[in-house]
Recover the amino acids of this structure.
């Protein structure tokens, strides 16, 4: 921040969606939240360029920055004409007026248009008339400022969810356990030990790859990068959050058991019982998150106090400077309702 005050420069923060909470778009990293707040309040000669697939709630949310203090370049909302062109490129059939109608109905939301385009092509040979079966917007799709665009994607995902086969749905719900990409070891552990993954457990490697390829074709799973073997599995944060919530609502016990599997897995990752570096400590922070979501808060608290704080030595703070990681971990011990009640 001192450098930004002293001389004009450009700071680029690219891909912040990985640090945001689901569809709300609120930042998880407390240090970054504080930086944005300080940048807003300080007299600086510099610019910060932020890119994200979601709105940054700390900037664009209600009662946040004044509009004269920032400029938004919206790459997620397309004009009706551009949206119609996108649908045509996705091989949706019909006339341009049909494409324009769909684009307007989805408010030009890019992710929503990509999803409906894939859906129509894969399930209905591109017939645009089936877009009329999209469910209407309700309060369940959200009504806050941060949700004003993503709610159209949720409409399409509701449509998608009815058409999914069981194995594809379960795979997406496993992705919904994470707040970041899932790597190969995490995937293997879940398929082996999570009760919800039992239908995936009996699939051959080729059959599981076919499930993944089908999800890629439908726009629900990001394609692998390059020609190398896939190292991680990821999707748009809105999609991940949607299937994670569906998992929790429809199969709460399996949801908790799956988080419990990850809780146990992460506890065993550090080579040392009491890690010496922040990198070694990262699995324990993840263990705390999954332990709380598994409703094993007492066990998660023991991990936090004994192995992260290291029995009141405050190693994570005093030695490693992990202030934001500690605060984020503590936040998982409080549900949203508990937080609201305390206010």
């Amino acid at each position: 921040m001192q450098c930004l005050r002293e001389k004009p420069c450009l700071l680029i923060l690219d891909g912040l969606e990985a640090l945001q909470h689901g569809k709300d778009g609120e930042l998880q990293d407390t240090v970054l939240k504080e930086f944005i707040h300080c940048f807003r309040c300080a007299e600086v000669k510099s610019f910060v360029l932020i890119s994200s697939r979601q709105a940054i709630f700390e900037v664009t949310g209600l009662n946040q920055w004044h509009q004269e203090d920032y400029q938004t370049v919206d790459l997620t909302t397309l004009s009706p004409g551009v949206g119609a062109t996108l649908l045509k490129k996705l091989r949706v059939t019909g006339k341009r007026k049909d494409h324009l109608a769909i684009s307007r109905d989805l408010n030009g939301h890019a992710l929503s248009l990509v999803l409906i385009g894939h859906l129509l092509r894969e399930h209905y040979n591109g017939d645009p008339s089936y877009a009329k079966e999209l469910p209407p917007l309700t309060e369940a799709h959200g009504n806050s400022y941060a949700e004003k665009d993503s709610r159209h994607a949720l409409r399409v995902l509701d449509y998608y969810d009815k058409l999914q086969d069981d194995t594809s749905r379960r795979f997406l719900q496993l992705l919904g356990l994470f707040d970041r990409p899932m790597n190969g070891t995490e995937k293997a552990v879940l398929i082996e030990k999570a009760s919800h993954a039992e239908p995936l457990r009996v699939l051959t490697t080729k059959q599981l790859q076919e499930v993944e390829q089908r999800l890629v074709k439908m726009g629900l799973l990001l394609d692998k990068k390059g020609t190398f073997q896939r190292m991680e599995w990821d999707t748009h944060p809105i999609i991940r959050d949607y299937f994670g919530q569906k998992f929790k609502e429809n199969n709460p016990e399996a949801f908790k058991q799956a988080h419990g599997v990850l809780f146990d897995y992460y506890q065993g990752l550090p080579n040392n019982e009491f890690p010496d570096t922040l990198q070694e400590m990262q699995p324990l922070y993840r263990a705390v998150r999954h332990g709380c979501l598994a409703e094993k808060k007492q066990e998660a608290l023991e991990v936090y106090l004994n192995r992260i704080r290291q029995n009141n030595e405050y190693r994570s703070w005093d030695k490693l400077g992990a202030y934001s990681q500690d605060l984020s971990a503590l936040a998982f011990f409080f549900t949203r309702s508990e937080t609201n009640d305390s206010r």
The CA atoms of residues 168 and 334 lie 32 Å apart. Strands lie at 10-13, 20-21, 26-27, 47-50, 182-183, 232-233. The longest strand covers residues 10-13. The radius of gyration is 22 Å.
